[in-house]
Design brief:
The protein is α+β, with helices and mostly antiparallel strands and 131 residues long. Helix content is 40%, strand content 21%. A hairpin with an 8-residue loop joins strand 3 (78-83) and strand 4. The protein starts with a strand and ends with a helix.
Amino acid sequence: MNSIPCDVVLLPNKVLAQKAISASRLLAANDSLFTLEIGKFYPHLSLYMFQLNEIDIPEVGASLHYIAKTIGVMQGKAISYSLGQGFGVGYIDPEYEVTEELRSLQNKVIEVINPVRAGMRESDIAKMQMV
């Protein structure tokens, strides 16, 4: 059975996204790993990364769509920034304050996905073996 790596994310509003993209372009001059841009590498806050069997995409998509309809706009507060820690160099990695609202949303996402999750992403397995 074919599986794909997935990442459930929160996306910033257009103004914040453009600010992040502009900052990423400034880093690009210093051998960045990637440069943010709409349609390619988009600024985001990851909620859950996992491997999913292709056959389960419609079910998970419908469940995530329902969750998305039940939440409103969320406010995130970056509490620190680092430059390329762990996954490479040349990008900004913000650390966000974990609010009860954010934790609750993440738990809902995990509850929906874990019953059909197809193990770990290959990139995560490789990173764990490096530790």
